[in-house]
Amino acid sequence: MNQAKEKQNDKHSHDDERSTSPKSFKRVKYDTEENLKNTSANVDAHSNKKMKESSNSEIYDNTVLVAEHYNLLQNKDLTSRGKSRILYMRNFNNWIKSVLISEHINKLKQTYGSHIKVLDMCCGKGGDLLKWKMSDIGYLICTDLADVTMQHCQDRYNDLKRRNSHGRNSLFRAEFITADCTKDHLRKKFKDPSISLDLVSCQFAFHYCFESLQQAECMMKNASECLKPGGYFIGTIPDAYDLVSRWQKCDGNNFGNDIYNVQFFCDKTKPPLFGAKYHFQLEGVVNCPEFLVYLPVFRKLAVKFGLELKLFERFDSFYERMKDKNKSLIIRMMGLETYPPYSNVSLVGDPERDYQHAKQYMQNVSDRRQIGTLSQSEWEVTSLYAVFAFEKVKTGTKMENQNT
Ligand SMILES: C[S@@+](CC[C@H](N)C(=O)[O-])C[C@H]1O[C@@H](n2cnc3c(N)ncnc32)[C@H](O)[C@@H]1O
C-alpha cells in the first residue's frame, strides 16, 4: 500500500490521448515509522486527554456550523452550474465517485446477487441518487446532519421516482434520516434496525468526524455495524499527507490558489491525531471546519470495527488506473475540459496560466487536435483527494496487520 502511494506521488504527465493533467504535488510525510508503531498508544492517550480538554459545547459548535453551512447552500440550477469556474472539477469528482461506486457494486453483485442494500452516510442533497439508480440497487438509506439538505435529497428522490414511473425497472426504495453520524446511533433510527447492508458510502464527508476520537469511533461504528461480512465501506476524503505537505511548504497557516483556500488552526510542527482543524474554502462550495484524517489512525479504528483497508488511492492515481475502462463515461459526464477550446467557447481557467501542461502536451503529439484536461487550479484541488474502500471481515477471519 505505502509503496503504491509513494509511486503514485512522483508523477505526472498523462499521455492518454484524451486527457492530460498538471503535475501533481510531491508530498512530505508527516508520519514516521515510529509514529505509526505508536498509533495505538497515541490514540488512547489522545482520547483521554481530549475528553478532559474538550467541552461538549466546543464539539457542538462545529457540528452546528457544518449543518448551517450546508443548509444555506443554494440549489443551483443547471444554467448557473454551467457557468461555474469549477464545473469540470465537479464533474470529474462525480466521475471518480461513479467509478468507485460501480466497481464495488459490481463486485457485490457477483457474490450476493442483485438486491443490493446501501447506506449513504452524509448524503447531502442526493448528488449520488442517479449513481444508485444506474447501479440498479434495491434499497437505499440516506442520512445527513442538515435538515434542509435532507429535504432536498428526499424531494429529488421523489422527483426521480415520478419520472421513473413508466420505466421498465422500478426505482430502488429509500428512507431518509436526519441525524449526526458522528454522535447518533444510526441503526436505532433505521426502519429495520436488523437490516443487513451490502455497501456503506460516505462521500466527501468522513473528515468531519476526526474532530475527536469519540466522534470518529461513532462514525466508524455506524459505518460498520450493519454491514454484512464481505460488504464494503467506501468513500472519498482529503489526503492528509498532501494537505500537510502543502501546509509545511507555505509560510504561515494559509495556502491555496484562485479557487480554493485552506487555513489551518493547529500546531504546524505537530498536528494532533484528532481535532487537527482547518477551514477549506472552495468557490462557495465548502467553507466550514474540517479535520485531518490521519491514515494510520483511520486504518486502526477500522480494524477495531471489523473493517479491513483494501484501497486508499489518490484521485490522480485512481484516474490513471480507471480512465481507459471508463472513458466513455468521463466524456458523457463532461469530466474534462476540451483544450484547445472550440472557437465559440471560453476556457474556465486563465488561458495563459492554467493550461501550460496541456500546451506542452500538445506540442509533443502530432496526431491530436484536441485533448481533455483540467485547469491547473482545478487540478490542484482535486488532486488533494483520495478514494478509500474497507471490507467487512468475515467471521473468524484474522485481520491483516492487526498489531501494527
Ligand atoms: C461535501 S458534502 C457531500 C455530500 C454528498 N456525500 C456528496 O458527495 O455529494 C458533505 C455533507 O456531509 C454532511 N455532514 C457533515 N457532518 C455531518 C455529520 N456529523 N453527520 C451527518 N452528516 C454530516 C453535510 O451536511 C453535507 O451534506
Note the main sheet.
7 strands, mixed
Uncertain ranges? 1-19, 22-60
Distance between the termini: 14 Å
Tally of contiguous helical segments: 15
Overall geometric form: globular
Sheet with most strands: strand arrangement: 4-3-2-5-6-14-11
Alpha-beta classification: alpha/beta
Number of strands: 14
- The helix/strand order is HEHHHHHEHEHEEHEHEEEEHEHHEHEHE
Bound molecules: S-adenosylmethionine
Mean pLDDT: 84
Estimate what percentage of residues fall within beta strands: 15-25%
- Rg over CA atoms, rounded to whole Å, is 21 Å
Summed up:
Belongs to the class I-like SAM-binding methyltransferase superfamily. mRNA cap 0 methyltransferase family. The chain is α/β, with parallel strands linked by helices and 404 residues long.
Please supply descriptive tags for the structure shown above.
alpha/beta, 14 strands, globular, disordered N terminus, binds S-adenosylmethionine
Explained architecture:
- The chain is an alpha/beta fold.
- The protein is built from 15 helices and 14 strands.
- It has a 7-stranded mixed sheet, with helices on both faces. Strands 7-8-9-10 form a 4-stranded antiparallel sheet.
- Strand 9 (277-282) and strand 10 form a beta hairpin.
- Helix 6 runs parallel beside helix 15 (376-382).
- The longest helix is centred in the first third of the chain and has 26 residues, at 87-112.
- The relative contact order is 0.17.
- Mean pLDDT is 84; it is low at 1-19 and 22-60.
- Bound molecules: S-adenosylmethionine (SAM).
- Residues 63, 66-67, 70, 122-124, 127-128, 144-146, 149, 180-182, 203-205, 208, 286 line the site of S-adenosylmethionine.
- S-adenosylmethionine binds at residues 63, 66-67, 70, 122-124, 127-128, 144-146, 149, 180-182, 203-205, 208, 286.
